[in-house]
Specification:
Chain lengths: ~300, ~300, ~525
């Protein structure tokens, strides 16, 4: 069990390292003078020289790399020249908004996908389930920006129910969260359906049924409860992915989170800000995934006791 | 005489399941072909030049004379732009799938077959990549290295190689234990040759299914990149850009945004349905069970 | 471990439950609530199409920015709707000799923190404008006059050559306390205008202004709070205006304007502008390059269908240029019309021995409405003429300024707009067509357009106090410039503004700005 924990944590640290290194390498190895990456496209010749000295850009790559890592450990990931503030504080200012959006979307997704998945599992291979199945496939097949634009047109322009952008009132959360949720519902409900359907075929269900447990009690009490483990882990993984997957939705809805921040940073070539956003997002995603992995043994005794999982 | 009449048989779960799978594959294939065939045949179809502007017939509604889907803000035929734009999107998608497929199969086979350190390194890479903030990194690469078609295809390929790699690794792990491999080793066949001649061909068929699903993902990813402005430079007519440009006209010319989105949806739905159907078939199910028992890294589904 | 021997220690379920609640709690605290609806009672929200990188115009000045910048900082004079200079920080601005202007700072003028406006502030401001590299405003001055303090708020502006347009030009020099001023753009800080900066977020281009309680002039502002937001997407601006998230938007294309005109709560104001939008050739090319030949440039200009652009793509909201500066400016002279004749373009290029020409067009997103569509149209215009056009689009805030100054990649045609905030043709001529070799050393010239004879004509015009002679000199300069075919095509856009009917007092001047102090909320 501890071996499992140690392995997971080591993995997490490795992933963060890899991400940070890739970002570092990309910026340094790309064509163009990396001094502009720190000073901004409007810099004068003197400013560029100062930047070169300050960041040691004329020193070997390895030295720069350690300098860069050192900075991260001290919480300094550079200064954003478009915001004229330390990049990290800009990112942390906006991170809560993305978290809000992600949590809202996941909550909606859970509320809809679990009952939907169970419903689909109970009616496998009927006409109604087939329709629902096609709908869920459709849900994960439509581009998220397109869904967002359609929702805005319907519920903001034609029917002025919700704001079209920004986050000034709670109403502004509805459309973006729905847009993100549609994809998650589609994926999650299919996972739920698959797991529950499979569990319902297990021998212990037959035993329970033979003892008189039936209907919704059987499905929810026995079937769903025992399928929760893979569903919860899938949820966790999806939530971790959401933190960077909402980029496009944030752009469509003008959401003040880190997704729209990174797009803006890319447009203005504000590399310190891009670096910081990517590093923070990676760390957060890895942490969430780590938490999910740590919780997994608590949920599934087979893992906890070191046995191989055959599902 | 059996009590199981035809009508009873038809209602049984197995038959219904089989029928449902067939329906999925057929519907999926129809949707996919409706989109892909015209795109591939775009040059021979009697459609106007996608770049031909007719500035005084701009923003014409679908059904206007000579313009099945209407025209855009420069009077260019939308139907034609969707077809030619689709060529660019499909090209990028296919290139990306090929590269990621080859990369994934190769690395996955190596990891599965040789095991040990090779497997450890490759598996860790796979896991690391699955946690990366992918879209952001893709945008960063495009911002740094330009937005040409090869760069975008390459970048999407890098995003997608873990899936085929994991699957291949799992397949190979299963195959490796089979008697014929042991027999070949005994006969003195080099390990690498075994991998190449015997193991991989058995895995390819499953990989094809995966390739379809990857294609769908690549198309979605490419359209998102184009939408954000990181796609191939103007005046290439990629689907994402058509939708992005069309936003300005959503009040007066809703078709510019709506129709390309529907086309993307049809294509992706079709491909997903086929993939889904193939997976649900009896052959697919057997593979799935085997694959899951071996790929059971806790927490990953 | 599963073992829970006889009740000691928490059960697994309890641990899970506790962890779950903890996680939930953490997650909720990591969330953020809404940013809060602006109290619309006495506020006005403006949505600009370009990001206001700063509240200062030392580097850049685009039309919509003028309104916002002048709300915080003022200059000695300001241009009114008749394109004449009105006194602001100066209570007197008189020409006392051909090369000297005597200025008196208004004794009532104070900054928002109570400090008086002094001559030192003017002096330092003038120095700093000259120090900034790549400034938009600085090249408009044929020379920078010297500031000579005469005591008690009076000073003389003395120059070597007479500067006839000085009162107009000084309307662009924003005055900040000398101690706070820098040779860079300022994003907050103190000014003497009707509003003070409460919040400035340069990264997102969002600003919040509050009334300056110590505002010294009339009329006093009435709107409590002004929010300035950056919304690059035109569709977002239009939608936000319709849903009343935003009260005033600018730079909208004709299609959007038509949509908005049907809407009851929205008013669209349009005025023929003073901005010159053009497709400028890159004059920093080697001598043997085809684009260095004026006849080649003229031939290329025949390929552009101006009518299709002006009346098709832009739906008649722009006027094709008939000269090298907008026809609305004082001192404009008609020099010719752009012709559309692809056959002639082709034959001319053949005659000049130019074949298989590859051209790269660059522009910044948002330079003018429908810019991307127009660029795509350009690709099509040049195909039948045998010229291959490549497009490169830049996002605002990106590195296009490096490219424009010749410090990055090679380009051939630039889609650009040159705003004019003085109303005088002289200013645009000075800024665009009168660059000198001196300026070229620091890359402050206008894309390599250096023609000493034109520059000297413009210089003489700006020193000429006799109006008829001045107009004559300017006409000559314009004719010479036109003969060089500096632009592939050019047009004058209407200054368009759309606002909700609940916001009033917006009187749009031809220079596309209005006085925020006069705006009221119904």
């Amino acid at each position: 069990m501890f071996r499992y924990l140690a392995l997971r944590i080591a993995q997490a640290i490795l992933t963060i390292f890899v991400t940070v290194t890739i970002v570092f390498l990309l910026i340094r190895l790309a064509p163009g003078d990396p001094a502009y990456a720190y000073a901004g496209p409007l810099a004068t010749a003197e400013q560029l020289d100062a930047v070169r000295r300050q960041f040691g850009l004329d020193q070997p790559l390895i030295v720069q790399y350690f300098h860069f890592l050192g900075g991260i450990f001290q919480g300094d990931t550079g200064t954003s020249y478009s915001f004229r503030q330390p990049a990290l504080s800009v990112v942390m200012d906006r991170l809560p908004y993305t978290i809000t959006l992600a949590i809202a979307a996941i909550v909606i997704a859970i509320i809809i996908s679990i009952p939907l998945g169970v419903w689909m599992a109970r009616r496998q291979n009927t006409g109604r389930e087939a329709t629902a199945s096609i709908l869920t496939i459709a849900g994960q097949s439509m581009p998220d920006f397109w869904i967002g634009i359609m929702l805005v047109t319907l519920f903001s322009v034609l029917l002025p129910w919700f704001p079209s952008s920004g986050f000034e009132t709670w109403g502004g959360l509805v459309l973006p969260a729905l847009t993100v949720a549609i994809l998650q519902v589609a994926v999650l409900s299919r996972i739920v359906r698959r797991e529950v359907a499979q569990t319902l075929q297990a021998p212990f269900i037959t035993v329970a049924r033979s003892r008189g447990v039936a209907g919704a009690g059987l499905v929810w009490g026995y079937g769903v409860r025992n399928s929760l483990v893979p569903v919860v882990t899938a949820l966790g993984t999806r939530f971790a992915g959401l933190l960077n997957g909402v980029v496009v939705v944030e752009v469509v809805f003008g959401w003040p989170g880190i997704g729209s921040l990174v797009v803006r940073a890319l447009e203005t070539r504000d590399y310190p800000l891009i670096q910081s956003t990517v590093v923070v997002t990676a760390i957060l995603a890895v942490l969430v995934q780590l938490v999910v992995d740590l919780v997994y043994p608590l949920l599934d005794p087979r893992v906890r006791l070191g046995r191989k999982v055959v599902s | 005489m059996s009590a199981v009449t035809d009508s009873v048989f038809k209602k049984s779960a197995v038959v219904r399941a089989a029928r449902a799978t067939r329906v999925k594959i057929i519907v999926g294939a129809v949707l996919t072909l409706i989109v892909v065939v015209p795109i591939v045949l775009a040059r021979v179809l009697p459609v106007p030049d996608p770049n031909a502007q007719d500035v005084f017939l701009r923003l014409a509604a679908p059904g206007t004379e000579g313009h099945l889907f209407g025209t855009d803000q420069l009077g260019r035929d939308l139907f034609s732009r969707i077809l030619y734009g689709g060529q660019v999107s499909l090209l990028i998608g296919v290139m990306a799938v090929l590269v990621s497929g080859v990369l994934g199969v190769v690395l996955g086979s190596l990891a599965g077959y040789y095991g040990g350190k090779v497997d450890a390194v490759i598996s860790r890479l796979i896991e690391a990549q699955l946690s990366l903030p992918l879209l952001m990194m893709l945008l960063l690469v495009v911002a740094l290295f330009g937005s040409s078609i090869p760069v975008i295809a390459f970048v999407i390929a890098i995003a997608n190689w873990p899936e085929p790699a994991r699957l291949t690794r799992a397949m190979v792990l299963v195959e490796r234990e089979k008697p014929y491999v042991a027999a070949a080793v005994v006969l003195g066949v080099k390990r690498f040759a075994i991998l190449l001649k015997h193991v991989i061909p058995n895995v390819i068929s499953q990989a094809v299914v995966l390739a379809l699903l990857l294609l769908a993902q690549a198309v979605l990813l490419e359209s998102a990149l184009s939408f954000l402005g990181a796609g191939p430079q103007r005046p290439f007519a990629t689907w994402g850009r058509i939708i992005s440009d069309g936003q300005d006209f959503i009040g007066s010319a809703w078709w510019i945004v709506t129709i390309p989105g529907l086309v993307i949806a049809f294509l992706v739905i079709g491909v997903n349905l086929i993939g889904d159907g193939l997976q649900q078939g009896s052959v697919g199910a057997a593979f799935r069970r085997l694959a899951r028992s071996v790929t059971a890294m806790p927490g990953r589904k | 471990m599963t073992r829970t021997p006889t009740g000691t220690g928490p059960t697994r379920r309890a641990v899970l439950g506790g962890a779950g609640l903890l996680g939930l709690g953490l997650a909720l605290t990591a969330c953020a609530g809404p940013t809060g609806k602006r109290d619309t009672a006495n506020t006005v929200t403006l949505a600009l199409n370009r990001s206001l990188v700063s509240l200062d115009n030392k580097l850049n000045q685009f039309d919509a920015a003028v309104t916002v910048q002048r709300a915080v900082r003022q200059a000695l004079t300001a241009i009114d709707e008749k394109l004449q200079p009105a006194l602001v920080l100066a209570s007197a601005f008189d020409q006392t000799s051909p090369t000297e202007w005597t200025v008196q700072i208004n004794p009532k003028a104070v900054y928002s923190d109570g400090r008086r406006v002094t001559v030192e502030d003017v002096k330092v401001a003038m120095e700093l404008y000259q120090k900034v590299e790549g400034s938009f405003v600085a090249p408009q001055f044929p020379e920078f006059p010297e500031v000579i303090d005469q005591g008690s708020g009076k000073f003389i502006l003395r120059s070597q050559e007479p500067i006839v347009a000085l009162p107009w030009l000084m309307s662009n020099i924003l005055i900040t306390p000398a101690a706070d001023n820098k040779a860079a753009e300022l994003n907050s800080g103190v000014g003497s205008g009707p509003y003070v900066v409460a919040e400035a977020d340069t990264g997102t281009g969002n600003y919040t202004f509050k009334i300056n309680e110590k505002y010294w002039a009339e009329p006093k502002p009435t709107v409590e709070t002004v929010y300035v937001r950056f919304m690059p997407e035109e569709s977002s601006r239009v939608t936000s205006l319709r849903t009343a998230d935003v009260d005033v938007i600018d730079s909208i294309a004709a299609d959007s304007a038509t949509q908005l005109q049907g809407w009851r709560d929205v008013v669209v104001e349009s005025v023929v502008g003073t901005r010159f939008d053009h497709f400028f050739f890159n004059f920093r090319k080697p001598k043997n390059h085809p684009l260095s030949d004026p006849e080649v440039r003229r031939a290329l200009s025949y390929a552009v269908d101006g009518n299709a652009i002006a009346n098709g793509i832009m739906s008649g909201s722009v006027t094709p240029a008939t000269g090298v500066v907008p026809q609305t400016l004082i001192g404009w002279a008609e020099t010719g019309k752009f012709e559309f004749d692809p056959g002639k373009a082709r034959s001319e290029l053949e005659r000049l021995g130019v074949s298989n020409l590859d051209l790269t067009f660059i522009w910044e997103s948002g330079e003018f409405p429908q810019d991307a569509a127009t660029m795509e149209a350009m690709v099509e215009f040049f195909k039948p003429v045998g010229v291959n056009v490549k497009l490169k689009q830049f996002e605002p805030g990106g590195d296009i300024s490096k490219w424009r100054r010749g410090e990055a990649g090679d380009w051939d045609v630039l889609g650009n707009g040159y705003g004019n905030q003085t109303g005088l043709a002289l200013t645009t001529l000075q800024g665009m067509y009168a660059s000198t070799a001196e300026q070229a050393k620091t890359h402050d010239d206008y894309h390599g357009f250096i023609f000493p004879d034109i520059a000297s004509l413009v210089r003489r015009a700006s020193a000429e106090s006799d109006e008829a002679k001045r107009n004559g000199l300017m006409a000559q300069a314009q004719k010479k410039a036109w003969d060089q075919t500096p632009s592939l095509w050019a047009f004058v856009p209407n200054a368009v503004l759309a606002h909700r009917t609940s916001v009033q007092g917006l009187s749009l001047t031809p220079i596309n700005s209005y006085d925020l102090a006069k705006v009221t909320r119904a």
